[in-house]
Amino acid sequence: MSQSDQHGMLNEDRKQELLHIEQGLVDHPFPPQLVIETTSRCNMMCLHCSHKEMKRPRADMDEGLFRKIVEEVAAELPECEIWPTFYGEALLLGERIWRMLDYADRVGCRHLVLNSNGIMLAKPGVAEAVLNSPLRRFIISLDGFSAPVFEKIRKGGNRDRIYQAVERLLQLRRQSGRQYPVIQCQFSIMEENEHEVERFSEHWLALGAEVKTRRKLTWTSTGSITAPHLDAPPELRIACPWGNNAAAIHQDGSLVACAVDYEGRYKAGNVRTNRIKDLWQGPHRQQLRLPHREHRWEQIPEICKGCPDWQVVGAAYRGKEGTKEGARPFWHQEYSDVK
């Protein structure tokens, strides 16, 4: 999965891969992936996350707005990948998150994916709620194997308590015989933890989880988070797959640049008073997607100009459930950095 040579510059394989990724981008009439921020509250202060310095409100999405969003998705593109979490921990919503997911499923949304930091999994009934939900995938971000590394990166989390909760979730899933959700343990690779990738992978694969690894993001490089490995020279820049393939909606209804625009520095409009499709085909396409696709770099939104996260598209997956429908993102076969 290495992207750089010993000097930190992108290696030739990764250069060719980025070009291949750009060549495969298409102009989607409706976002095939939609990130919905059901809450912007979080119960961790992770080393590699800008949430701790986020200036916009920490609040929950109104359920009426969520229903409006998923009703449009069901009508326009039922197979759209809906991720009902963005810059927060959705399990903090308690019963509400399961009610929202059930509603999305009931109106016809077929591809629901949820991320979590795992803290709430230890609470009574939460693991069972995960398994009884209509989720296709449930992703737990862990990012460390040993307690010192885990707790340095995922500040606010107790490694042993969270690991035990995830292990119990996997055990319950085995006992139930359920096909879904696919359980994926995620590891964001950075200097502090890269020596633990293999031990992490071996542990979770042995317990029946899938393992998802990806490189650290900078979250648009507008805060304190840096990633020295994202060092592609300007002449290698490609149209951003994040902005091209995914729409992201903040808890207040703002449709922003992409799934890493945590502060909402670019806004195409608000889905409270507009259809997602109209914003996606209108301002979002004209101001963000087309300038990227046509390499009009001087015209892309300001937030995009200094953002290096287009280099981190794709993730590596290991496990036995990759053949299941919905076990991978829609773009995985074409854009993944797994060869």
Explain what this protein looks like in three dimensions.
With 339 residues, the chain is an alpha/beta fold. It is 33% helix and 14% strand. The chain is built from twelve helices and ten strands. It has a ten-stranded mixed beta sheet. Strand 5 (182-189), helix 7 and strand 6 form a beta-alpha-beta unit. The chain starts with 11 loop residues before the first helix and ends with a helix.
Count, helices: 12
The percentage helix is 25-40%
Task: Write out the strand line-up for the largest beta sheet, numbering strands in chain order.
Answer: 9-8-7-1-2-3-4-5-6-10
Mean pLDDT across the residues is 92
Main sheet overview: 10 strands, mixed
- Which series of helices and strands comes N to C? HEHEHEHEHHEHEHEEEHHHEH
Report Rg: 19 Å
Strand content: 5-15%
Termini separation comes to 9 Å
Which parts are unreliable, with pLDDT below 50 for 5 consecutive residues or more? 1-8, 335-339
Short précis:
With 339 residues, the chain is α/β, with parallel strands linked by helices. It has twelve helices and ten strands.
List descriptors:
339 residues; disordered C terminus; 10-stranded mixed beta sheet; 12 helices; disordered N terminus
